[in-house]
Specification:
Elements: E1 11-12, H1 16-25, H2 37-48, H3 53-58, H4 80-88, H5 92-104, H6 109-119, H7 122-141, H8 145-166, H9 168-173, E2 179-182, E3 185-188, E4 194-196, E5 204-208, E6 216-218, E7 226-230, H10 246-252, H11 254-261, H12 269-276, H13 280-292, E8 296-301, E9 304-309, H14 311-317
């Protein structure tokens, strides 16, 4: 265990590249599918045109997974192009070392053969895998990134508030049942149990939409220690708001009624736009109109405004029995 001051360097971040890699895993890991079934249906045609086998081989469901494919985020909200550049800059010796560790535990003969070919030219393997990640990002995750990012940001916002109210120990103990704080450090029990020592490198805590129901830990050098855990609210990530009453649609317009129905929890303009397939400008116009009529309120949170229904707006959504 490091100096107590090291605990102050524990930070939250999210990672678009991590989400991409684990979005791909949902096509091979049946445990992760229940919460993402609606998304699978949306991307079915796109995924059919992508060769995900190289990523599947390098991300086995059991055993060692190379960390260079999902480097811990260096900032709270990194850009995917910067993360892909970091992957492509990984030294070939590091790529070879991690792929070799991955190869040792592979049971699937097809994937083992792929890894054997990658080990013959780790530089080419690195660039190939980075290219597959980029393709998966563009086709599978980027079209829905606003929605996914809103979920991750909401998790970080709630846990940061918990940190201020109850302290770090409470936050760490409530991340996930398989994550526990001890005198030795953070214990992560998922497959091969690991303990992460809190030292001068600190720890990155990273919510993830696609990792459910697992947790994951990055502990090996040269990477910053990182724990990925399922973000709160993932069960509602692909939730479609219930249709508003017809009478409300006739009163304020169908699209505006859908916007009002979509505010089950505080949401930004971009989140509402992504959920309902609207342009940001269109969603903003509807939200401002609803705000001006007293059906929603807006509260600034950092760089954006979060809108939520008022009591009056909620009452209008309730269909009264005749």
């Amino acid at each position: 265990m490091g100096d107590p001051d090291d605990l102050l360097a524990v930070r939250f971040a999210w990672s678009p590249l991590w989400e991409t890699a684990h979005a791909v895993r949902t096509f091979f890991d049946p445990r992760a599918r229940p919460y993402h079934r609606a998304w699978h249906q949306l991307v079915a045609e796109r995924v059919a045109g992508i060769d995900l086998e190289p990523l599947a081989a390098a991300q086995p469901l059991r055993g060692y997974v190379p960390d260079f494919l999902t480097p811990p985020p260096r900032s709270p909200s990194p850009r995917v192009r910067d993360q892909l550049a970091e992957v492509r800059a990984t030294p070939p010796s590091q790529v070879e070392r991690e792929l070799r560790l991955c190869r040792e535990g592979l049971k699937d003969p097809r994937h083992a053969a792929l890894l054997d070919s990658y080990l013959g030219d780790p530089r080419r393997a690195r660039d190939l895998l980075a290219g597959r990640l980029q393709e998966a990002w563009i086709n599978l995750v980027a079209p829905f990134w606003i929605r996914v990012r809103a979920l991750l940001e909401r998790d970080i916002h709630e846990r940061s508030r918990q940190l201020a109210q109850h302290g770090l120990r409470r936050v760490l103990d409530e991340l996930h049942p398989r994550i526990r704080w001890s005198r030795q450090g953070l214990s992560v029990r998922d497959g091969d149990p690991r303990t992460i020592n809190v030292d001068e490198r600190a720890i990155v805590l990273m919510p993830s939409a696609y990792i459910w129901p697992s947790v994951a830990a990055i502990v090996d050098e040269p990477w910053q220690p990182t724990i990925a855990y399922p973000a709160r609210g993932v069960a509602r990530l692909w939730h479609i708001p219930a249709a508003p009453p017809d009478a409300l649609g006739r009163l304020i317009g169908r699209t505006r009624a859908l916007v009002l129905a979509g505010l089950d929890r505080p949401s930004s303009t971009q989140t509402i736009a992504a959920h309902l397939g609207l342009s940001p400008a269109g969603a903003s116009g509807h939200l401002l109109a609803l705000r001006d009529t007293g059906l929603v309120t807006g509260t600034r949170s950092g760089h954006e405004v979060l809108y939520k229904r008022t009591a009056l707006g909620t009452r209008l959504l309730v269909t009264r029995p005749r």
